[in-house]
Design a protein that fits this description.
Blueprint lengths: L1 H88 L2 H33 L4 H40 L4 E3 L2 E2 L2 H18 L8 H17 L2 E3 L13 E7 L8 E8 L2 E3 L2 E4 L1 E7 L2
Parallel strand pairs: 4-8
Antiparallel strand pairs: 1-2, 3-6, 5-8, 6-7
Helix pairs in contact: 1-2, 1-3, 1-4, 2-3, 3-4, 3-5, 4-5
């Protein structure tokens, strides 16, 4: 009887010890799982931070791309307006060339819009966002350069025509003291417009150097005939200048600085006397 009871107690003790051991093992397993869960949480937080960083970089690149596109459209719009204003005042042959230039720029704007739409759609659709943004920027730069080359090509043709106009058309005058300056003023307006466009281009653009030399040649011919096209683009502005002025704010300039950044019509002097007042745009940071 005693031995049976003793054996039963011993057996119960063994079961308890076995259960305690299993509980201890389970606690160790739970502790390991908790530690692994903590590690997984840490890894998740790192991956989440990395993904957030990539998303922020993508958003910044898309914003930069949009700013570049808007700036390009603004520059193209300003060029188009200048071409339209000058086209109304030129002779029939010059008007034809100017209209061709306007058409070329409008086509380039349309192509640029299509390229921008397609590239933006691709950027929003899939794999490596940063690589796609770089491709989009490169494509925009390529499109901008192609548009500039087309503009330079048309301006080269226009300069050739201006050369012929100046060479073949004598100055008409009602008497010896009052020569007719109308053709000279029209040609000077076109020359300054072309110089303004060149100032916004890189010298690597195809036809840039040829066009610049042609413009310098016309300036030299003008000077030899008594006409001076006063160079004002990029020069500091002061209140004593005789000019019609439009002011723009530019925070990138030094405080208090005023600089001539656009010329609608140049100042023209004939034999030292001003025959056309300048119409200019002045950027300032006051």
């Amino acid at each position: 009887m005693f031995s049976t009871i003793g054996w039963s107690k011993t057996n119960d003790s063994l079961k308890i010890i076995t259960l305690q051991r299993e509980v201890s093992n389970l606690k160790v397993s739970v502790s390991c799982l908790q530690q692994e869960n903590g590690n997984m949480r840490g890894l998740y937080q790192q991956q989440k931070a990395h993904v957030d960083s990539l998303i922020n970089r993508q958003n910044q690149q898309e914003e930069n791309l949009s700013v570049l596109a808007n700036q390009l459209k603004s520059d193209l719009s300003e060029t188009n307006k200048n071409l339209e204003v000058n086209a109304r005042s030129l002779s029939t042959s010059i008007n034809i060339r100017t209209k061709l230039a306007v058409c070329g720029i409008l086509i380039a704007i349309a192509l640029l819009g299509v390229v921008y739409f397609i590239l933006k759609k691709k950027i929003l659709s899939g794999s490596s966002s940063i690589d796609k943004i770089k491709i989009a920027q490169e494509s925009l730069e390529t499109a901008q350069k192609a548009m500039q080359e087309e503009s330079v090509k048309l301006d080269n043709k226009l300069v050739e025509l201006l050369d012929k106009q100046v060479a073949t058309q004598p100055q008409n005058s009602s008497n010896d003291d009052q020569p007719d300056h109308s053709l000279a003023l029209k040609v000077a307006d076109e020359i300054v417009r072309i110089e303004t466009n060149l100032s916004r281009m890189d010298e690597s653009v195809k036809g840039y150097k040829q066009l610049k030399k042609a413009v310098e040649r016309i300036r030299t011919n003008f000077l030899a005939n008594g006409y001076e096209i006063v160079e004002m683009l990029g020069k500091p502005y002061n209140e004593g200048m005789k000019a019609s002025v439009n002011f723009d704010t530019d925070d990138s300039l030094a405080e208090g600085e005023q600089k001539i950044t656009g010329i609608i019509k140049p100042q023209i002097n004939y034999k030292g006397k001003m025959i056309q007042t300048a119409q200019i745009t002045v950027s300032q940071n006051l």
